[in-house]
């Protein structure tokens, strides 16, 4: 079987992952990156895109292939394969991200290939994640990335747009100070959740780089400290003591003090926006988000 035998219209719906995987394997074989003898095993961790681990005794390392679903982007999280490929190449050798192997765009969609990160999803001790995030935020970002804006006005506007889209009766935004220091331009991962932090023998790695950007480090802090994101990605809400320990460890590791000040002031708005996002996701078919929306609303009200 060759690529000429594969017509996009002949492929089953995306639910038929076996046919999709076989077609993708042929493409990467022709590119010379994957052995014809390789075994592809679908990984269950990703919520946005199909992902496979690729193993073969004639390949030096296991690989991971991610196929991007163009429809999986959401108001808070982009799903851009070109950004992930850019960042993986940019961070090569820094011990922060997986090792890049290749990127291509085909009739099946964009896909990226990188070296498998051999470890387990993070849970528990927050200091290591704080140190990893601080390291990332100290790296000069590639200028090709888009900007993330976290002003009170922008956070409120984004939340109101999500609520309008699903016909939600949105509670009023919490009052926060507008007397904030100007944000510094930092390298943001955009989705630092427990499932995207892998614990390896030599430290932690960040995976799933499909929504990196440049902007206020408070945005990354808010995602990790979100109780909804902690639960949805296999952990539990962080206690007040753990949140304080995380921010202290982040600052001690050289993290962005301006970002911490902005997060502390804007936390009620970040939680309010995340509560609305959970309702938006539930309205689009992901019922798990409905169960955690109240946690974010409660955190917003507690300030």
Can you tag this structure with a few keywords?
303 residues, alpha+beta, Phosphorylase Kinase, domain 1, Aminoglycoside 3'-phosphotransferase, Chain: A, domain 2, 2 domains, five-stranded antiparallel sheet, 11 strands
What does this structure look like?
This protein is α+β, with helices and mostly antiparallel strands and 303 residues long. It folds into two domains: 113 residues, Phosphorylase Kinase, domain 1 (2-Layer Sandwich), CATH 3.30.200; 183 residues, Aminoglycoside phosphotransferase (APH), C-terminal lobe (Aminoglycoside 3'-phosphotransferase, Chain: A, domain 2), CATH 3.90.1200. The chain is built from nine helices and eleven strands. Strands 1-2-3-5-4 form a five-stranded antiparallel β-sheet, with helices on both faces. The protein starts with 16 loop residues before the first helix and ends with a helix. The N terminus is likely disordered.
The helix fraction, in percent, is 25-40%
Largest sheet: 5 strands, antiparallel
Tally the beta strands.
11
Low-confidence stretches: 1-15
Q: For the largest beta sheet, what order do the strands appear in spatially?
A: 1-2-3-5-4
Instruction: State which percent range the strand residues make up.
Output: 15-25%
Instruction: Name the average pLDDT.
Output: 93
Structural class: alpha+beta
Order of helices and strands: HEEEHEEEHEHEEEEHHHHH
């Amino acid at each position: 079987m060759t690529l000429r035998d594969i017509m996009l219209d002949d492929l089953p719906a995306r639910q038929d992952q076996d046919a999709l995987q076989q077609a993708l394997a042929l493409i990467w074989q022709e590119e010379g990156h994957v052995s014809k003898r390789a075994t592809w095993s679908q990984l269950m961790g990703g919520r946005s895109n199909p992902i496979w681990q690729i193993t073969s005794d004639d390949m030096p390392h296991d690989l991971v292939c991610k196929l991007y679903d163009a429809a999986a982007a959401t108001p808070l999280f982009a799903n851009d394969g070109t950004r992930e490929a850019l960042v993986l190449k940019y961070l090569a050798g820094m011990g922060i991200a997986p090792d890049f192997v290749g990127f291509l765009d085909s009739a099946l969609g964009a896909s990226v290939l990188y070296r498998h990160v051999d470890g387990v999803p993070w849970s528990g001790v927050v200091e290591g994640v704080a140190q990893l995030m601080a390291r990332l935020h100290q790296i000069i970002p590639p200028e090709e990335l888009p900007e993330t804006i976290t002003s009170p006005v922008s956070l409120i506007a984004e939340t109101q747009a999500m609520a309008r889209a699903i016909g939600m009766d949105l509670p009023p935004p919490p009052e926060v100070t507008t007397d904030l220091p100007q944000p510094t331009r930092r390298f943001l991962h955009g989705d630092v959740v427990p499932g995207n932090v892998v614990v390896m023998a030599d430290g932690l790695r960040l995976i799933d780089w499909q929504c990196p950007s440049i902007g206020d480090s408070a945005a990354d802090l808010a995602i990790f400290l979100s109780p909804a994101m902690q639960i949805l990605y296999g952990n539990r809400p962080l206690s007040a003591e753990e949140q304080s320990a995380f921010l202290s460890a982040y600052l001690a590791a050289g993290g962005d003090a301006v970002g911490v000040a902005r997060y502390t002031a804007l936390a009620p708005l970040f939680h309010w926006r995340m509560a609305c996002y959970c309702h938006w996701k539930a309205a689009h078919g992901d019922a798990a988000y409905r169960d955690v929306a109240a946690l974010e609303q409660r955190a917003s009200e507690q300030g």
